[in-house]
Amino acid sequence: MSEKIDIYLNGDRLQVAVGIDLQQLQQQFAADQQVAIALNTEIMPRRCWPERVLQARDQVLIFNLVAGG
Amino acid sequence: MATKLTTSAKLITSANHSSPAALQSPLPDQQFLYYSRQLLLPDWSEQRQLQLQQKKVLIVGMGGLGCPAATYLAGAGVGWLLLADGDKVELSNLPRQTLFRVSDIGLNKAEAAAATLQQLNPFIRIDALSQMLDEAELVRRIAWADLVLDCSDNLATKLAINRICQQQQRCWLGASASGYQGYSWLINPASGGCLECLGHQQPLLPGGCLQQGVYTPLVGQLGLQLASMALQQLANGRRRRSFVQIYQHHQQQFSQCQLLADPQCKCCGVTADV
Ligand SMILES: [Zn+2]
Fold first, then answer.
1. Which candidate among A24, A58, B78, B91 keeps its CA 20 to 30 Å from the CA of B57?
2. PANTHER family from the xrefs (chain A) (predicted)?
3. What is the complex's ipTM, to 2 decimals?
4. Average pLDDT over residues A35-47
């Protein structure tokens, strides 16, 4: 069984595999959606997602990009 | 008998037009009275009120975001509001576009909003632009304004404002909402980060309020955030780092996150200097 860490995704505690990065997390939880991701209150540019490996207790916010008003 | 001015007595004195303090006021009596509750705030003053009267704000879009934002900026006393919208008022707008009434249906939104706001505050100037602003017009109007609020409902306008403000190095505010999703932002080109860094450069899935609906109180909250952020920005010109306030419906809260610059962004693409 692969090792897991606890993170917080949109306020909920969640177990994910050690070594998972932001891009993999997005594909796992928000595939086919146009989203932005904040990691520990910083919004990460999309091209940084594959480089950002999650650490235990990281707080991640995935939110949909919208254009209405 | 020793006299000690209580807080309530101070309030009465400062709002009383027959008092010597009021007679020496640089604000005309009616305006002093109009803004009296705001003037009582510890960090507000007649000087600040007069400075606000010198400010010009462009609001692009007079829908669910623009109506509350413009209402509170007018009430606060921003001296010159320029409202831009090419759409007409429809019945389905009334639940959240609070400046309009049934009698406004069919009227241009910018013009109808300007008329209502002028009744709300007769001491400021309010102009309406009743057409969609093309690129050249946006360039001109953004250069004119002290601050720009993007309250539009489409990606093309948002990206155009983003690009022009980047070119002109202008700090600007905006918001987006659809369904239960929404966020507001302050973008300061000097600190890096822009709407394209956030991810808005890609075509968004078909959506918007027309397809997804919109949670009525959310656009109101975002519009009020914009008004408050604008007043802070206009008052002290504080050069804040770019940030986004993201609405989380289940928690009924907003999370403020710093917007990091993408060094390879086609729009901003430079490192921060703030
Ligand atoms: Zn950018």
1. B91
2. SULFUR CARRIER PROTEIN THIS
3. 0.93
4. 96
